[in-house]
# Entry
Amino acid sequence: MERSERIKPVVRPVARLIAGLRSVGLSPLGLVLILALVVLPFVPFFSQEYILRWMVGAALVAAQAIAFDFTAGYINVVNFGFAAFLGVGAYTSALLAVRLGVPPWIGIFVGALAAAILGFFTGVLTLRLRGIFAAVMAWFVGLALLGLVRNLTDLTRGPLGLNCPTFLETPSNRPYFYIILPMMLVIYVVLRRVTQSHIGLAFKAIGQNIEAARACGVNPTRYRVINFTLSCFFAGWLGGFYAHYYGILTPDVLHTKHTVEVLAVAYIGGRGSIWGGALTAFPFIFIIEWLRSSLTELPGLHLVIYGLVLILVMIFYPDGVAGIYGWAVEKIKSAFGKGE
# Structure
């Protein structure tokens, strides 16, 4: 009895911590990984500037994979125009800073709002369609935006590139990592909370069987537009970071190839998991960047690797990294259960 009384003060705070983490979609392992990312830039090898730059790029791709998977994994619509919505946020924030002197910290939210509004109208026009048609229409919107940015040279400078102010007057990449990492966590927590709500239940129903969802009283178009708009909002927000981190924008930022990269990371991570793409992005982007810097005579090799890995995952591990993790957890639980 005395032993149980001594254990209770320790168990209760731990249980509360785990419950608090679960309420925002995190596990104890997830918290450990996040803390490791926070400390990593101060570890000697990872404190090098080119490694820090890779870490910023990996966190940016991870955040995009979360927002992309929110649509592809839940309402079963692949937004092939995802990079274009990111570009809308980037150019909106950059133009506000260059033309009107709006601070980047404000401009990124205006850019996110612009991307969300465009996403809303795109969703209203396209998400009444089914199957591949909605994805293709989103892709066409992205191509149209790419063409506008290339041709409106008086406004965007087109292929010449639009120079814009950065967030900070520092050559170091470390502060930028501590900007994009919280952004990634905010996107994850918000979208995880949404998927755990009754709205998320409607998303899952639509993604699994749209006709059955409609028969149960769910309005597919309404919930698909909500999902698409929210995903575009965060894409635009990340676009603002992109603009004020790199300091220059070209129409290439809206190109479909960037959408394909995010799609590959999200699918390899595990479609419909939200966190799988974020977990996959860091090692995957590091490998890709290392290959780019080591094999400069083979441009475009990273796209080949994306394709090959994606094919292997879809054939042998359709649930991706998240599925493998779930399988391992079940095996461990069953092993301990048999041991008892």
Observations:
- The two ends are 23 Å apart (CA to CA).
